[in-house]
Amino acid sequence: QEVSFFIMDQKEICQNYYAPFEGEESLSAPKIFLKEEFYRTFLMIAGKIPLWSVLPEESIDDSMNMEGIISQCLFMYDDLIDLGNIPTLPKEDILKGLLWHICKSKEDPIKALIKATMVFSYGFGKEVSNVLLCEKIKQNYPNAGIDDYGTDPYKALFDRILEFHEKEEPGALNLIKNAIFFRLCEYPNVKIPGEKTPKRALLNKYIQNWKLNKNQVGKLLSYTTWSESEKLLLEKTILTRLAQMYNHAIKSVDDVNAVRDNASEKKNWVILRNKTKQRLKKIPNKIAECSTYICRQDIVSFDIVQTPNLWKLNIKNQSGERMNTVYKHLNFLNVFGWIIENQLYNRQISSITLHMGPWLFESVDKPVGTDSLYMAFAPLKPLSDICYLKAATWSKMMVALFYDIQVKNGALIKAEMLVSNSWGELFFEAIEFSSENNKDQRCGEIAKQMSKYVGGDLRMFIYQFSDSHDPDVVYQIKKAYNDLTDPKTNQVLRKKKPYLDKL
Q1: Between the CA of residue 87 and those of 31, 249, 412, 414, what are the distances in Å?
Q2: In whole angstroms, what is the distance from residue 154 CA to residue 173 CA?
Q3: pLDDT computed for residue 29 by the predictor
Q4: CA–centroid distance for 267 within its chain
Q5: What's the pTM value of the predicted model, to 2 decimals?
Q6: What is the pLDDT of residue 25?
Q7: How many angstroms separate the CA atoms of 238 and 139, rounded?
Q8: CA 186 → CA 89, 108, 191, 199, 302, distances in Å?
Q9: Hey, which bits of 367-435 come out as E strands?
Q10: Residues ≥6 apart with Cβ < 8 Å to 36
Q11: Is 327 helix (H, G, I), strand (E, B) or coil?
Q12: How far is CA 22 from the centre of its chain?
């Protein structure tokens, strides 16, 4: 069982402050939900009992000295600790909680959908109770028992979001049922829970209540054998539902500007908004995502195979399982970009084999391996969320030049481009050259396409797929790139580099 420890200060937790001991508070889920989840799930392991769990549920009269009561309780009982209460949920915190789970949906879309729906129901449910789940769990303390699925915190969460969908969002009810089913079956490595376990008892109860037949249950349990397109369809449906909740929430929160202007939360707010925008916005030419199932595999071998019309990717995981044609595309760099966009390649355990005729060259006439392509973008994903405080800027560009290998020293016939930005997004473009154009014209076309990504400190990497190294093409492309002019003003677009810098 994997266990994580978070070292925190009791007095700071009491005030809903969860920053590390040094520096400013880092990006985190809204504090109220962190504490609510702890109070909802702490029953199994706790060094001390939170005072919140033994205080009376009824509102305490204003004339009573609450601080005095707390001090007296802590003085009398060594096994109690004061971690503070949970205030009423403001709508701006509900919005931030929703954004947080949308950002986390890349790692686990099922978990993100369930928790985002819980947060959404607190602020936008009209017919369901908005009492915090931890308070409902607390009401059941007298009847709670170890491994009692009827009073389990997760069952309370599942029942809450089921009730919300039954009463207010019936169109998404089947999706949330599927999410609960997969959550109980340890998505993405879906398998039925063991006999006589609380999970199995709860799953059986839901199967009976939802009137799922044998074929429906079998289809869900066979998730690991679904095609990649089926897995992606499920995740796309989840992302669409998250976007619907986000759009509803953003229109309903009147104090969104107040949140944005709050100095202590401004940084978190900007980061969350930009990360959410990145997650939900559909952008042309952006490299596609893979399924969570593929993402969780420890892949040891990538085989990129060239066929007459396509490039196909076959993979093998650590257990020896082979998955053929998990991704395919007309262009090589799109397939390679898919591997690194989805962070599937681990240099310590993985290898990438390129099954094709020509050699791969960089700046010299000695061939290089595919690992060189990977290192050009490493690290692709940001090492810190600080980059989301600003709009994305272009950071790295790779140009792959393909030569006609049917003839010796064949002509340049195609150029493919991968371009990354400061948010770690990866984009692809390709140029097919007309046989009528000479080499200089083709280099000019490449330079013109490259000019779309001018900005910031863009770094360029140029590779050749050919039977022999072309010693002049890199210079020709860079010269054409530096000589580009604005068609309206006839001014050179790029500032000329000093002569010594060229040397």
Answers
A1: 11, 20, 66, 61
A2: 18
A3: 62
A4: 20
A5: 0.86
A6: 45
A7: 32
A8: 31, 11, 7, 10, 26
A9: 394-403, 412-421, 426-432
A10: 86, 132, 133, 134
A11: strand
A12: 27
**Residue 169 corresponds to which tokens in the numbers above?**
């969002």
Q: In sequence order, what are the beta bridge partners of 355? A: 305
Torsion sign (Cα): 431, 435, 437, 443: positive
- Measured CA to CA, the distance from residue 23 to residue 19 in angstroms comes to 8
Phi, psi (deg, nearest 5) at residue 230: -70, -40
- CA distances 430 to 68, 112, 232, 332, Å, are 72, 35, 25, 10
Q: Report the candidate in 21, 3, 4 with the shortest Cα–Cα distance to residue 12.
A: 21
- The rounded distance, in Å, linking the Cα atoms of 373 and 420 is 13
Q: Can you tell me whether residue 425 is helix, strand or coil?
A: coil
CA atoms within 13 A on the CB side of 464: 24
How many other CB atoms are there within 10 angstroms of residue 344's CB atom?
Answer: 21
Residue 186 CB coordination number (10 Å): 12
Per-residue HEC secondary structure of 265-287 comes to: HHHHHHHHHHHHHHHHCCCCCEC
User: Distance between CA atoms of 333 and 495, rounded to whole angstroms?
Assistant: 30
Q: Which residues are bridge partners to 314 per DSSP? A: 303
Task: Evaluate whether 120 touches 98 at the Cβ level (below 8 Å).
Answer: yes
- Res 35: pLDDT: 86
In whole angstroms, what is the distance from residue 313 CA to residue 375 CA?
20
d(CA 235, CA 244): 14
Query: Token pair of 194, please?
Result: 């063991």
**Residues facing 464 on adjacent strands:** 361, 401
What is the C-alpha separation between 102 and 276, in angstroms, rounded? 6
Task: Please provide residue 7's backbone torsions phi and psi, each rounded to the nearest 5 degrees.
Answer: -85, 120
User: Reduced to 3 states, what is the DSSP secondary structure of residue 415?
Assistant: strand
Q: Is 417 exposed, middle or buried (0-12, 13-18, 19+ CB in 10 A)?
A: buried
Nearest partner of 303 among 241, 354, 231, judged by Cα? 354
Residues 451 and 458: their CA atoms lie apart, in Å, by: 11
Give the number of other Cβ atoms within 10 Å of residue 488's Cβ: 6
Burial of 81 by CB count in 10 Å (0-12 exposed, 13-18 middle, 19+ buried)? middle
Extract the tokens encoding 34: 């962190």
Residue 219 in tokens: 């289809």
Q: Are 299 and 315 in contact (CB under 8 A)?
A: yes
Compute mean pLDDT per 10 residues along the chain, 503 residues long, and list them: 76 74 50 84 71 70 63 76 82 86 94 95 83 85 69 87 94 96 96 92 95 96 95 96 92 60 69 92 93 95 91 93 94 96 93 81 85 91 90 93 80 94 95 89 91 80 90 90 71 56 52
Give the integer Cα–Cα distance in Å for 55 and 50.
10
Helix or strand run (H / E) with residue 104: helix 91-104
